[in-house]
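Hi R.,

Here's the chain you asked about this morning:
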Amino acid sequence: MNSRLAASGAAILITAATLAAAGGYAVAESSSKGNVRLVACASTTTGTMRLVDPGTTCRRGEEKATWNRTGKPGADGATGATGPKGETGATGARGEKGEQGDAAVSGITVLVGAVTVIDANATFQRASTPVCPAGSLALDGGVYGSGTGVELEVVRPADAAGGDALSDPQRYALYLSNSNAFSREIYLYVTCTTVPDID
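And the predicted structure, written out as tokens:
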């Protein structure tokens, strides 16, 4: 409603009965959104109001007022309290058995032995690597770290006792030379792999 009307302090209550008593008649104007709007001319001195057609020009001493039958939406209400926790659902059906996985790769272990002394000016001095654990085979053997002047000449598979082995080696025999005029201390290693059913 117009602010000037509100400022007059007149309390206006419009019902079908009061409009009829005043000789007024209901006039509705439809907005583009389908909401019905009422149009009236109101006295600026007494606050008396009469409903008119939307295109009517109000008389002197009156001002036009319009309002909707449906008020504006109210503000959003406060968020409700959190509801109680729901019950635990039923246990799902057991899934199907998965396919068998691929065979695992055999484990690899590198063993480094104690200090081995290579004599001064040695040629083809034989030395043995550590022995692989039971149930595994030796794949490789060599000198761990650097040994200046020490050369690895021949590598041969060997059994646990240190003798040459044609199959299933469990250590390696190394043949080394030393070009130094003094002895050298070196470390020998062996690479082992786990193989099932090997004692």
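The radius of gyration is 53 Å.

Let me know if you need anything else.
M.
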